[in-house]
Specification:
Blueprint lengths: L5 E2 L1 H9 L8 E8 L5 E8 L6 E5 L2 E5 L11 E7 L2 E7 L5 E2 L5 E3 L1
Parallel strand pairs: 1-6, 2-5
Antiparallel strand pairs: 2-3, 3-9, 4-5, 6-7, 8-9
């Protein structure tokens, strides 16, 4: 059974900080073919499409398209602010291996 991804409070708080919802945008997390491990995450601000799964919190939204959803089942979408940089990250239990870049993975 595919469970929707979980979005942390920290990720929603960062979206509120940058005013995504105020500008009518949401965080889109999608899976694309390619990258050094076979798949890669596409994380960007976007507008909702009719068939998106919409996860809401703190007045903000995260969008997952139906093709990407099975790859993100039970994943956690978070915001990381570390010395190497601040970025949205995906902790994905479906990934069997990942790349040092943090955006590419295999299943």
């Amino acid at each position: 059974m595919n469970l929707p991804p979980n979005v942390t409070e920290r990720a929603f708080a960062r979206l509120a900080e940058i005013g995504a919802g105020h500008d009518g945008k949401a965080l889109r997390v999608a899976i694309l073919g390619g990258g050094c491990s076979g798949f890669q995450y596409d994380i960007r601000l976007d507008e909702a499409a009719g068939d998106d799964l919409v996860l809401e919190g703190a007045g903000e939204r995260v969008l997952i398209d139906p093709v990407s959803l099975p790859f993100l089942s039970n994943a956690t979408i978070d915001f990381s602010d570390e010395l190497i940089g601040a970025r949205f990250v995906v902790e994905n239990p479906n990934a069997t291996s990942s790349c040092g870049c943090g955006t590419s993975f295999s299943i």
